[in-house]
Specification:
Elements lengths: L8 E4 L5 H12 L3 E6 L4 H9 L4 E5 L5 H11 L4 E4 L14 H29 L3 E6 L3 H4 L6 H21 L4 E8 L8 H13 L9 H12 L10 E4 L7
Helix pairs in contact: 1-8, 3-4, 4-6
């Protein structure tokens, strides 16, 4: 099936590994020109991902630094599709959490995507072109967290509200804004948690298995495709049933 992604310029943030790397590879398979993003410390990983693609490029930025996010956008230039995937999943219970820990989580998971999305919208408006934004959220945005990730859950809940609001604003411009809410995946970010509590997570998943990142990536690619042109303001749940609405 042709998803209409050939030669589309796609920025995938947080693409040095895990879901981001898988997203980059799936978009590449569909003929898109993929722009990778990672932190300075991930340069070798980004080069490795790029070597697995047919074409593309990468840039580095620290998403806890607003100026660095702005510089990333200037380097990247115009894109047709923005995938806000980069994020952190720190652990701290609220009673022990510092303001800096909470603030950094919001900066990376919510404020950086806002900056990129704002710049994307303004570029699309100036060019008169349509576009798509897909935000990676989480089942935690709806369920909350009981395992020390309240700051993460708050950032992702904020992204859900931001997605809907932005979709309402951007719809008259021909710009679709949607979200994908993954459950638990086998990625480096989740490795330690799964080693410690995989059985507990499986008890919460009706399908009784942990997702492969590709299962989430294909949902993102679908929303980015021309097959989803009539979908906006939606959150697609890819959680094995952990989240049912």
């Amino acid at each position: 099936m042709d998803y209409g992604l050939k030669d589309k310029r796609v920025l995938v943030t947080g693409s040095a590994g895990g879901l981001g790397k898988t997203l980059a590879k799936v978009f590449d398979e569909e003929g898109a020109y993929v722009i990778l993003h990672g932190r300075e410390a991930e340069k070798e990983l980004l080069e490795g991902v790029l070597s697995e693609l047919s074409r593309g490029e990468y840039f580095m930025a620290d998403f806890s630094d607003e100026e660095s996010v702005e510089n990333l956008w200037k380097q990247v230039g115009a894109v047709d599709i923005l995938v806000n995937n980069a994020g952190i999943w720190p652990t701290a219970y609220v009673k022990d959490m510092t303001s800096d820990q909470f603030r950094k989580t919001l900066e990376i998971n919510l404020i950086a995507p806002f900056i990129l999305s704002r710049n994307f919208l303004n570029e699309r408006i100036a060019s008169g072109k349509k576009g798509k934004i897909i935000n990676l959220v989480s089942q935690a945005a709806f369920h909350g967290s009981t395992s020390g990730h309240a700051h993460y859950a708050a950032s992702k809940a904020g992204m859900v509200g931001f997605t809907v609001s932005m979709a309402r604003e951007a719809a008259p411009l021909g710009i679709n804004v949607n979200a994908v809410a993954p459950g638990m995946m086998r990625t480096p970010m989740n490795k330690d948690a799964l080693e410690q509590r995989e059985d507990a997570y499986l008890e919460r998943i009706p399908l009784r298995r942990i997702a492969d990142p590709s299962e989430v990536a294909y949902a993102v690619v679908y929303l980015a495709s021309n097959k989803a042109d009539y979908i906006t303001g939606a959150t697609l749940d890819v959680t094995g049933g952990m989240l049912m609405r």
